[in-house]
């Protein structure tokens, strides 16, 4: 009977060891979810910005299309921590480019036009195309 319990215990340990390895493997879906969480954090930070006579409106390229270039442009003002935002965007863009290469993602290859100008309306930066 002891041998049976010992064999069962060893078998459980063996199966648990392989289960841990499977958890460490990322999938396309988990990586895509990570990208969405990062993008939401970036957009949330930019959304806290306000514009007025003291703060200037700006934009930054956001995302990495598989064919090259950004998916679009994020509008924000200098009222937030710009260095933090720029670092978050750079990390996100790099991570998305790596994701695109790893998973052979494709897109329409259309060029996203940057805003021609920005204006402040009701303390919110607005892009003009």
UniProtKB/TrEMBL annotation:
The keyword Signal applies. The keyword Signal applies. It comes from the Bacteria. Residues 1-19 form the signal peptide. Keywords: Signal. This is Uncharacterized protein. It comes from Mariniflexile fucanivorans.
